[in-house]
Amino acid sequence: MSTDAMRPLSSTPSGSTARLGASLHIKGEISGNEDLHIDGSVEGLVQLEDRKLTVGASAKLTADVVAREVVVYGSVKGNLRARDRIEIKKDGSVVGDLTTARIMIEDGAYFKGSIEIDRTGSASHDNDLDKPAYTRSTSSTPAHAPVTKTSL
């Protein structure tokens, strides 16, 4: 079996994720082009436009976050913006506003703030969903069209 088959799908192509250890404390701005796992504390801004940020169980962030995907196991005070999705795990805590295309908040998680679902952040599989439900058709025959029977 190749090592590629055992690599988690969520890792970067090179298989590496940068880590900020539990004893590290940063004030300022973090930006980069690789996935990041934070276990320490950060005050300021974390900007990983096309990457995944994981906030570890021991992490304490007082920061605004911009990333492709954010997974929270620890504590975040600040606004989160994720182009793809935000997950708040059962022991995670977020106080701030969320903007994302997809959201998952597990039972037991703490969240205080607002959620804005931004569909423009991810490619929609069905552009029909942007229309009101009453204008969408479920088949090629409109719902109001009469049903006709033909016999051969």
The major β-sheet equals: 11 strands, parallel
Query: How far apart, in Å, are the first and last alpha carbons?
Result: 59 Å
Number of strands: 11
User: Residue ranges: pLDDT <50 for 5 or more in a row?
Assistant: 1-12, 122-126, 139-143
Compute the number of helices: 1
Q: Please give the radius of gyration in angstroms.
A: 21 Å
Structural class: mainly beta
Quick recap:
The protein has one helix and eleven strands.
Structural topology:
Elements (H helix, E strand, L loop, with lengths): L2 H4 L11 E3 L4 E7 L4 E3 L2 E15 L4 E13 L2 E3 L2 E9 L4 E3 L2 E8 L4 E3 L2 E3 L35
Parallel strand pairs: 1-3, 2-4, 3-4, 4-5, 5-6, 5-7, 6-8, 7-9, 8-10, 9-11
Provide a descriptive summary of the structure in words.
With 152 residues, the chain is mainly beta. The chain has one domain (3-125). The chain is 3% helix and 46% strand. It has one helix at residues 3-6; strands at 18-20, 25-31, 36-38, 41-55, 60-72, 75-77, 80-88, 93-95, 98-105, 110-112, 115-117. Strands 1, 2, 3, 4, 5, 6, 7, 8, 9, 10 and 11 form an eleven-stranded parallel β-sheet that branches. The longest helix has 4 residues, at 3-6. It is globular and about 30 Å long.
